[in-house]
UniProtKB/TrEMBL annotation:
This is Tyrosine--tRNA ligase. CDD domains: tRNA_bind_EMAP-II_like, TyrRS_core. GO terms for cellular component: cytoplasm; nucleus. It holds the Pfam family tRNA-synt_1b. The keyword Nuclease does not apply. The gene is Yars. SUPFAM superfamilies: Nucleic acid-binding proteins (SSF50249), Nucleotidylyl transferase (SSF52374). Keywords: Aminoacyl-tRNA synthetase, ATP-binding, Cytoplasm, Ligase, Nucleotide-binding, Nucleus, Protein biosynthesis, RNA-binding, tRNA-binding. It comes from Chordeiles acutipennis.
Length: 527
């Protein structure tokens, strides 16, 4: 039997791979006296994905350090956050989370009997808790509540009052769960500092806060439940895992915003203390790394090829996912999954007496629209009105796109700019050059015709998904079938608003960083 870790070893286990700790001195002092009580909460909204293995591996560290760990399924928070979980689905999604989180923990060898599982509504609807919500609301300013939730609560043009309550409830959870510390992502930092400021005003202790870094998704931005291309679902089939990893951003030698490397660092290394890069003998054979820094160095120096790295992660990841897939293959859990996350693309029957001329499944989530970066622009060799562009959309190779922008946009204005690209049209030859996408542009109604490429919000990365508000869920079609005219039906309702925002049926085109717009063509169309 291994000897129990001492305070310093416990401190190392608790804090390794974290980005920030608020209350380090208090943590060390507490570890010298007793075991730490800590909780991690998750709002039961979108389906958990493989990035959830990051907090799971930290929970394993906490248990090794002797901590008492509580996992909170924050069902009420899920509803308060701009109704990300509709009330009628709340119970179903909470049950799904309970089953899938437990399956994840089991797949990495965490003993469930050492954990405490709690639902928010088990105590958040009590008289005492409700009174504390009112007490907190009497001292918190609207400014502080909005600021605290800025990185976590969904930001919309006309925010609901519920989003202002969210940070206060999360602060109160620390007191009602009787913990010493809260663990979460660094995106929760503003809520954590909000809790440290306001809990003492109610006579409650300030807690310790432990923060994980945000792990980049497969497109190079944050891995998100609402961005299908950025994440691998826990129930994805092996062929889907292969397909998504193949498209993942993993530029040779680039270790910044590399979701594949980040997954190795924050999940696979902590679990196994090593990582094996699988290679054919002619490329040097398999190589075992016992320190992540050595692997990162070799990748930066291009000793390790992105293809070998992706293949190796695919093998390791499927070993983690296999027991979860097996558990969710039962009829009961299959039924729960489809009930908790109904497919929005499925057509609903028309009301009696009406003609269903526009099928319900013609929805914007079927379009694979991404942020692209124009790498090069050349005139088409056989057509004076066409450009041939190379555009990076977060895939291993840039796409070739032909667009008729010569008379509207000077070449130097296109070079190196971010654009919005429709990526799942069927490739077609335009005067002998195959075009693999369409640059979406605003167009004026009058003469002379004016055209402006749509602008993603500043700070976006190539490959980031673009959505229509309210349609963030659902997988896009692999390829839009020309005969079905899905794009044409949707495009009929594309427009530019009076404040130059791209819209479909008055719903904004958005990325996780904000709205898609154009420079000046108010009231125009989009093509």
């Amino acid at each position: 039997m291994e000897p129990a870790p001492g305070p310093r070893e416990k401190y190392h286990l608790i804090t390794r791979n974290l980005q920030e700790v608020l209350g380090e001195d208090k943590l060390m002092a507490m570890l010298k006296e007793r075991e730490l009580k800590i909780y991690w909460g998750t709002a039961t909204t979108g389906k958990p994905h493989v990035a959830y293995f990051v907090p799971m591996s930290k929970i394993a560290d906490f248990l090794k350090a002797g901590c008492e760990v509580t996992i909170l399924f924050a069902d009420l928070h899920a509803y308060l956050d701009n109704m990300k979980a509709p009330w009628e689905l709340l119970e179903l999604r909470t049950r799904y989370y309970e089953n899938v989180i437990k399956a994840m923990l089991e797949s990495i060898g965490v003993p469930l009997e050492k954990l405490k599982f709690v639902r928010g509504t088990d105590y958040q609807l009590t008289k005492e808790y409700t009174l504390d919500v009112y007490r907190l609301s009497s001292v918190v300013t609207q400014h502080d509540a909005k600021k605290a939730g800025a990185e976590v609560v969904k930001q919309v043009e006309h925010p609901l009052l519920s989003g202002l309550l969210y940070p206060g409830l999360q602060a109160l959870d620390e007191e009602y769960l009787k913990v010493d510390a809260q663990f979460g992502g660094v995106d929760q930092r503003k809520i954590f500092t909000f809790a440290e400021k306001y809990l003492p005003s109610l006579g409650y202790a300030k807690r310790i806060h432990l923060m994980n870094p945000m792990v980049p998704g497969l497109t190079g931005s944050k891995m998100s439940s609402s961005e299908e291309d950025s994440k691998i679902d826990l129930l994805d089939r092996k062929e889907d895992v292969k397909k998504k990893l193949k498209k993942a951003f993993c530029e040779p030698g680039n270790v910044e915003n590399n979701g594949v490397l980040s997954f190795i660092k924050h999940v696979l290394f902590p679990l196994k203390s090593e990582f094996v890069v699988l290679r054919e003998e002619k490329w040097g054979g398999n190589k075992t790394y016992t320190a992540y820094e050595t692997l990162e160095k070799d990748f930066a120096e291009q000793v390790v090829h992105p293809g070998d790295l992706k293949n190796s992660v695919e093998v390791a990841l499927n070993k983690l996912l296999d027991p979860i897939r097996e558990k969710f293959n039962s009829p009961e859990l299959k039924k729960l999954t489809s009930a908790a996350y109904p497919n929005p693309a499925k057509a609903k029957p028309a009301e009696k007496g009406t003609k269903n001329s526009e099928p319900e499944n013609v929805v914007p989530s079927r379009l694979d629209i991404r942020v692209g970066k124009v790498i090069s622009v050349e005139k088409h060799p056989d057509a004076d009105s066409l450009y041939v562009e190379k555009i990076d959309v977060g895939e291993p190779e840039p796409r070739t796109v032909v667009s008729g922008l010569v008379q509207f946009v000077p070449k130097e204005q296109l070079q190196d700019r971010l654009v919005v690209l429709l990526c799942n049209l069927k490739p077609q030859k335009m005067r002998g050059v195959e075009s693999q996408g369409m640059v979406l542009c605003a167009s004026s109604a009058g003469e002379p015709r004016q055209v402006e490429p749509l602008d993603p919000p500043p700070g976006c990365c190539a490959g980031e998904r673009v959505y229509v508000e309210g349609y963030e869920g659902g997988e896009p079609d692999d390829e839009l079938k020309p005969k079905k005219k899905v794009f044409e039906k949707l495009q009929a309702d594309f427009c530019i608003s009076e404040d130059c925002v791209a819209q479909w049926k008055q719903r904004n085109f958005i990325t996780k960083l904000g709205r898609v717009s154009c420079k000046s063509l108010k009231g125009g169309s989009i093509s």
